[in-house]
Amino acid sequence: MAAMPPTGKDVNQALRLCLGTTATGAEFGAVSALSINHDCSRLLCGFAKGQITMWDLANGKLLRTITDAHPPGTAVLHVKFTDDPTLAICNDSGGSVFELAFRRVMGMRSCDSRCLFSGSKGEVCCIEPLHTPPERKDHPITPYSLLAMGSLTKILVIGLKPSLKVWMTFPYNKSDPSSVPQLAWQFVPAQKTFNPVLAFCRGNTVHFLLVKKEEMGSIHVVKQRQLQLNCDIISLSWISSRTLVLVDSQEQLQVVDRPSQEVLDQVDLEQVQLVYNSRHFKSLATGGNVSEALALVGEKACYESVSSYAGQILYLGTKSAHIMILRSWRERVDCLLRQERYGEALALAWSFHEGTAKAVVGLYGDPVKRKGVVADKMVEILIQFVGRSLKRCPDQGKIQVLEQHFQEVVPVVVEYCLLLQRSDLLLEQLYGRLGENVVSRGMFLESLESYIISQRLAHLTTPVMKDLLAHYHGNGLMERLERLIVHLDVVQMCWENRLYDAMIYVFNRGMNDYITPLEKLFAEIGPHLREGRTLTNEQVVIGNKLLVYISCSLVGRAYPLGDIPEDLVPQVKNKVFEFLIRLHSVETSDEEEVFPFIRTLLHFDTREFLNVLALTFEDFRNDKQALEYQQRIVDILLKVMVDNPDFTPSQVGGLFTFLARQLAKPDNTLFVNRKLFDQVLEFLCCPDDDSRHTERQQVLLELLHVGGVVQFEEGSLLALAEKAEFYQICEFLYEKQHLFDKIIDCYLRDNLRKVEVFSYIHNLLSMPGYTAPEKQAVWDKTLQHIQELVALDPSRSADLVTCHFPAHVGPIISQMEDDQLRFQFITSILESREGRPSDSVVTLDPDLHEQQVGLLCRFDPPGLQAFLETSQLYPLEAAIKMTEQYGHSEATAYLLEKKGDAQGAFTVLLTKLKRILESITREVGEAEVEGGGAKDCSAPPLAGLEGSLDDIIALCHRNSKSLNKQQREVLWFPLLEAMMAPQKLLRGPNAHHTSEALKELTMKDPVYGKGKLAEIQGLILGMLDTFNYEQDSCNICLLQYKRCHDAPEEIVVFSCGHLYHCQCLQAKDCGSGLDSQRPQKWSCFKCSNQGGRGGALSDQRRVRSTSLAQTNVTSSLRETGLEAHDNKVCVETTLDPQQVQSWDHLRSLYRGPSRLAILSELTHCHGNEKAGLLHPAPLGAGSVFQGEDFKLKLSPPPVVEE
Questions:
Q1: Which secondary-structure segment (H or E) carries 185?
Q2: Which residues form a coiled coil (predicted)?
């Protein structure tokens, strides 16, 4: 660093600190030594003129400047922290060593110096304190704070704590005087413990000293094997516990494995231009007052230019700093792969796998884990190696060239696959790729020969074995093939590759062994079945093969193809039977039950095993020995399965079904105790066992169908079946006895088959083949249970009655007590059946039609109208009374109109409409009282109102054509009155607000004003606006007072009904008698100027000098703080009865076309389309509907789903 101040950089090589100045360098000289403490918070700098400084690396602050730590006039060669942050060691150019103890008392920093070794006794040129890594901080050596010192003649190891003590002195061998002493500490594992080892050298020999603490508390130093090199070492560093990095005087870096003393790598450092410490060792900055020996050593000294830390070594060059690290094991392998040196890469990876590699970095964990990681990498290399060899295979040329190319690949691949014990990778994936090339395939197959003979490869896959045989046969290598086959375990190979058919073939054809395959297959599935575990798919395949193999062996067929030689057939049958009926297996255990093989087959698939036996028994007619085996197997089956809870009723039933079939044969030779059948019958029909009821019934039914009925007494069987509720068994027995009527009871009592009784009755009564008495019995039984059938399914009962019992419809209906059931039955009778002949449709009497009307009123009101329109047999008057009784207004109106009473029908519908309107009006009124405004009307009332209005308008339209004008007015006028009734009811003392509320009611629903309803909406709103306009307009200025919001104004209303602004009357001089005590007297301007037009009534009005009502109306503006849409109304009035009557007349006054004229024109419809308020007809010229703003609203908004 010459005279520059020390600097610091971060990992990104960005300058972080510049400590001191050039002035400091000029004063102290060049930096000659550096040391950072263990937590990187402090930096010690030694200078060529002898000063020492301490810096805070956190902020770059100078903490201490030490000038008296060692004799003046000597350069600082080394300064190093110990593990104690308050203790450091200094070595100067005089060869002395000093201890620096840092203190801080009362905020004052100080440094005490103590001489550890004097240069007069031998100059020390290097020092190295023992630094304990964090994970070894509790090591017993740590408290002693060991320090190694290297002089020109010897090595010293001393302890600084608890007191200064020399633990060891070791002299050098004879060496070159210019050689540089070197020291390096490292914790090395030995016998499950870690102890520090000191490596030191001077010249070409490296010595190792193991330091450990004895049980007595003393430190013992043990000399270990030395390392001899052919070079002069100038730098020595540990890079791992097994690896050292050396630099010789020729600046050649050598990586050495200490245990094997092998040089692993060598690097030339010439380009680094290493910095030497010669100037400082000669102490040129202080006058060169050093010994010649020390100056000679300084020529090669580079102590401060080399530093090792955490597996890295830093080298300081004249222009740059260099970092040397060991590559990780993966990087070393990848480096060889990049150079396409696959063989060397595999060899290196295998050394990592086996733990024999040197300088291993990056491979952690226990040995098993490390081997797994390396093995995965080797598999990757092998696949890559094969792919590269195939890709670079010569396309053309001599066969020798191709063989030479693959000779470098195939043997290597085979060797390492087998070393990794990855025969699956070798024989499947890699062979699949190498087999694409003829040359590589042949070389691969021949490469396997040595491994097969040496027993390193005992099994081959099927494709490899096939290609191996073809290759050796095609090349005439039959002798070599024979040697291979002898060493191959063909059977085991078949078994491991799941080649069960091939294994059986080898045993049968090659060794005439038909039993060993059975033992192997049974051993695969037997334990799982005995333990009750579920079989895997592979085990199910084995079980099925086992059944087929037994079947083939017992009938003389070879498995899987061909036939067994005729002379071996009897022998094979006997051996297989003897095997099946063995009492125990060869490898028996105490827990094994008797007859394990038959039990295994029964548990695997009872039905299929019995089918195998049934097929086998067909060929036993003339074989006396085989018949004995047949009887023996049946006895074993009965012994194993009967009274054994391990088998289900289905399995036991399957056994007796099998026995029943065998016993039913004419040439049967089997003997089965009849009591066993009775025992099985009682087992299946046990009424106390509710489990597997359906399964037990099906088993017994199957047993009866195959002839088992001959084994039972029918009477007791029927009794047991009825007791166990086996109704299918009862049906079977009744059908056998031709008691078909009793089968109906079986169906009705069987909950699972009740609905099938209808099909059974219909088929029996309709199909030929049954006698008349049998059908009559069924017919009688059906009538007996007809009520139960109707309750079960009214619709299907109606079909049955219509088809087979048309004359009994009335009595059947009269016997029904449940009205709901009667309604469903009658409805089903009346419905037209698809595909039924017209002559089979039942016509009910009028009284039943009348009964149906009443039932519809009660149980199906929506369907009542459709029935009334389609049926013509019900009594009209009775139907009207029933619809009125149950409150079905639409149906009543329909019947009245059908009767000819249109007015009565109109009255019924109008009453319903008024009732709905009153309900809605009441809700609106309650809402005004509670919240001051109209509330939302719920959807159902509005929908009901719309439907009711549609019905009554349609009625009026249908009957208007046959009525005169007055009759039409009788229809339409009450309808309009009913629709306007809410306006009259809502208007009261707060007339303005109720009118607005009605408007809000008509406009509230968001779907209002859409489609055809918009026309009605406009008409209602137009009527209200006209009414308010004529009531609130001044008869002089013709302006409504509500439109003037500039200032408060007075309104005068006379008994004649005319309304004026006070200002307008004053302008016409119609006021007189202004007095502070009495109100001003007004006269009507319009009546006063009409002359004789008013007659006596006009004179009477003019005589009256007081207005009907004088009203002060104040329009409240937004600035007053009230809402703009609310008006504050103050009324001061005194009314007599006559004035009240006039006021009411004024409120009801409507100036425009008469309502009769409107309704009359509504009735003038032409065309066949329905015309009405919701369906307007075309209008003629001059009609009141021609007005641009004329609209009519007679119904609330419909409820429309968006």
A1: strand 182-190
A2: none
